[in-house]
Amino acid sequence: MQREEALPEYTNRSVKRALSVLDVLFDASRGLLLTEIAALAELDRATAFRLLHVLIERGYVHRDGRSKRYSINLNLSFRAKGELPGIVGRLARPVLRQLHLDTGGAISVASLLGAEICYYQEFLGRDQVGEELFRGKRLPSHATACGKMMLALQPAATLRKIYEYLPLQAYTPLTIRELPVLERDLALVRENGFATNPGEFVEHRICVALPIRTPDGAKPLAVSVSLPASQVDHDSLGGLVDRLRGASEQIGRLVGTERESLLEAS
User: Fold this and answer.
1) Are the C-beta atoms of 108 and 90 separated by less than 8 Å?
2) What is the per-residue pLDDT for 75?
3) Lowest-confidence range among 42-46, 81-85, 237-241?
4) What is the pLDDT at residue 38?
5) Is 161 helix (H, G, I), strand (E, B) or coil?
6) Is the pTM of the predicted complex or chain greater than 0.70?
7) Residue 207 CA to chain centroid, in angstroms?
8) Which SS3 state, helix, strand or coil, does residue 205 take?
């Protein structure tokens, strides 16, 4: 068997430094001054300033003229379709972390891609030590709580178009496999205001999801918490829904406040 040659390692200092600046801004809970960005990215002020100037020109970063603080541009359109919007990802992280601490469950955010969702698992559950994060993976909409939550928000014609020629694949014995059954399940999701996934994608786990709605009416994302089925009963389900609703509303308010601040500064 022929041995595969190792690929050479290519690095570009300017690209790596620019990505470091973006990482700093994504993780920040507020706008940052140039000196703060330079310190956190481990760059000198002149280099950080040049990189920020380019990122502003390309639309990735916004600078508030009054406070002289930099932040990720709210109007940024990511080239990877379905990628978690940067502003929500940056502002939501502390809220999602608190949700994880409150519930002990796996906390995720997802965006709809028709028959799939782009799934961002932010925090593993306490029972999932050693398991991999699902960040950036695509999972089936019909078999996940996030997917069903967002499918429920789609018109009936859109749902039928998605699954017109696409079979509903089974992942566990509980996976919904027929479109009429899925439609009835989604009607219940709309009635309840939340979606559940009791062992339909991973056996013996239950996932609960709600939409994240932003004041500008943008296409919603979904936030979910996943726990072992043995830890969720009828009484505790209501508590999970309440915590998810609080987190979703808090994220929506944060996004709205940030957008208003940037519009006032522009």
Assistant:
1) no
2) 45
3) 81-85
4) 93
5) helix
6) no
7) 15
8) strand
In this prediction, residue 7 has a pLDDT band, given cuts at 50, 70 and 90, of very low
d(CA 45, CA 34): 7
Question: Helices 45-57 and 34-41: crossing angle, nearest 10°?
Answer: 110
Query: Sign of dihedral through CA atoms 5, 11, 16, 18?
Result: negative
Interatomic CA distance for residues 138 and 18, integer angstroms: 28
**What letter represents residue 210's amino acid?**
L
Q: How many CB atoms lie within 10 A of CB 62?
A: 21
Query: What are the tens digits of pLDDT across the range 173-232?
Result: 999 999 999 999 999 999 999 999 999 999 999 999 999 876 655 567 899 999 999 998
Domains of the chain, CATH where assigned: 13-72 (1.10.10.10), 86-259 (3.30.450.40)
- Give Rg (Cα) of the chain: 21
**Long-range contacts of range 14-20, CB-CB < 8 Å, 24 or more positions apart?**
14/51, 17/41, 17/43, 17/47, 17/51, 18/51, 18/54, 18/55
Residue 80 has pLDDT above 70, yes or no: no
CA–CA dist 124, 133 (Å, integer):
7
How many residues does this entry show for the chain? Answer: 266
Provide the 3-class DSSP secondary structure of residue 139: strand
Q: Largest Cα–Cα distance of the chain, in whole Å? A: 64
The pair of three-digit structure tokens given for residue 233, joined into one six-digit string: 């009963």
Q: Is 99 helix (H, G, I), strand (E, B) or coil?
A: helix
Residue 4 banded pLDDT, cuts 50, 70, 90: very low
Residues 159-171 pLDDT 10s: 888 888 788 999 9
Q: In percent, how much of the chain has pLDDT > 90?
A: 35
Residue 241: C-alpha distances to residues 45, 186, 194, 197, 207 (Å): 46, 17, 7, 13, 11
- Per the DSSP assignment, residues forming a β-bridge with 121 are 108
